[in-house]
Amino acid sequence: MRMNATYLQQFLSDSARKAKRSEIRELLKLTARPEVISLAGGLPSPETFPLEEIAELVPDMLRRYGAAALQYGPTEGDIGLREELRKLMAEDGLPDLSIDRILVTSASQQGLDLTGRVFLAPGDTVVCGLPSYLGALGAFAASGARMTGIVEDDEGMPPSKLEERLIALRRQGIRPKILYLVPDFQNPSGVTLSLERRLEILSIASEFDLLVLEDSPYRQLRYVGEHVPNMKSLDRDGRVISLFTFSKILFPGLRLGWLVADEEVVSRYVVAKQPVDLCTSALTQLLAREYLKTGRLPAQIERTKDLYREKRRIFLETIEKEIDPSWGVRWTRPEGGLFLWMTLPDGMNARALLDLALKENVAFVCGGAFHCDGSGENTLRLNFSYSGNEQLVEGVRRIARAIENMIRSRSSAEDVLHAEDPAALPVHHGVHSLEQLSWNLGLSEVVE
Ligand SMILES: Cc1ncc(COP(=O)(O)O)c(C=O)c1O
After folding, report:
1. CA of 424 to the centre of ligand 1 (A)
2. Which residue, among 243, 223, 266, has the nearest Cα to 181 in the 3D structure?
């Protein structure tokens, strides 16, 4: 007998029953066609992967650590790696960190999942940005938490709006536990939270007694502009928990990240991590330890930044050239990271644009996926790290063509509507299913 889906239902947990299957695979099937330029994924460029260095280091590492590299290790992580991470954090504004305040994770996605396990129960509330990284929303939702979203602008989350929302929630007797932020070159918007806002948000978090989860995978990838201190280094009362990762500065196949928090918090995460994976792979930890110890990381980050800086420049210049200002399209100008965020004029639908874009053989992710409240249907995320420079230019040209076609057909449809029935509103076909699709689209997409 083969298990069928209906029979299986009776065995499923509540959360497994509610979890939706990702329809990104359908989009990926389309984007896998060689003629499609995909600006949809969130993948680092394989050109940044230090293949030769890794090939050289692996035998060295195995000789040096022998069986320990193939053994289970402590849940907290390899002590030598944590020592290297301590030095790394000292260079990023945290000079006095003890290694007891560092937990090695199986990349930052695990930090998000563990956050749900440690702090969130069904009905708890998390405050996040509109938009927010979908992999985090998924991790919190798996704990049964509810999300409340604050509309972000070109500098990230406005503290005044955060405060207003917290006051309104307090009136309803709701006390959120966690504020989730991607302060540096956010996925999906590319926006960075200014120092002033970081300080204001931390003071609001103190006033309303919220934990702050700082998730910062792109932090080291700044191409232009001024360095902004990480939120942990501005934390005066131990309420910030920070997640960092090697995924975007070394390679994501390492599946290695680290969490920085006060000792008491770290020890809770250790307990939560034990039943999940016992420990992060010793093999990859020792590899990363050797990579850091031999001083290779700074040059690797510089090489990566040089490559992406150029891609960003080309991408932005082409967008400025190809998108006609009269179309009313807006976009962010990220100073780092992998993504740019585009907002279409009100009433224009990114899902409908994606249909047109796919006909032009270019793909992106619809922004609705990143909105916990189902809004954002006129937004889209564009990735500029993965495609080659020529593809970036051509990809933007095709998207611009799709936007122009959409605007043209919209205005002619409106002309017809006005002519035939002045009271009729333009119908945006499939809006509901757009939300469904874009929600589903996001989850595996963003993790990639
Ligand atoms: C904001 C954010 N957090 C976490 C992750 C997960 O990264 P990883 O688990 O590879 O460290 C990603 C991946 O793209 C991300 O964009």
Report:
1. 44
2. 243
255-285 pLDDT, tens digit per residue, is 999 999 999 999 999 999 999 999 999 999 9
Element (H, E) at 406: helix 389-420
Please tell me the distance from the alpha carbon of residue 61 to that of residue 143, in angstroms, as a whole number.
38
Tokens 């609705």 belong to residue: 368
* Cβ neighbours for 384, distance < 8 A, ≥ 6 positions apart: 39, 308, 311, 312, 315, 338, 339, 340, 392
DSSP SS3 for 401: helix
Would strands 125-130 and 37-38 be described as parallel, antiparallel, or unpaired?
unpaired
Q: Report pLDDT digits (tens) over 391-432.
A: 999 999 999 999 999 998 877 766 655 555 444 333 322 222
pTM of the complete model: 0.91
Residue with tokens 């954090």: 89
Which two structure tokens, joined as six digits, stand for 125?
């509330």
Amino acid identity, position 79: I
Give me the DSSP letters along 263-324.
HHHHHHHHHHHHHHHSS--HHHHHHHHHHHHTT-HHHHHHHHHHHHHHHHHHHHHHHHHHS-
3-state secondary structure of 148: strand
Residues in contact with ligand 1 (CB, 6 Å cut-off): 42, 107-109, 133, 135, 182, 187, 215, 217, 245, 247, 252, 257, 446-447
Ligand 1 probe mutation, 103, 245, 383, 444, most atoms within 8 A of CB: 245
| Domains of the chain and any CATH numbers | 15-49+300-447 (3.90.1150.10), 52-295 (3.40.640.10)
Task: Please give the distance, rounded to the nearest whole angstrom, from the Cα atom of residue 324 to the centre of ligand 1.
Answer: 33
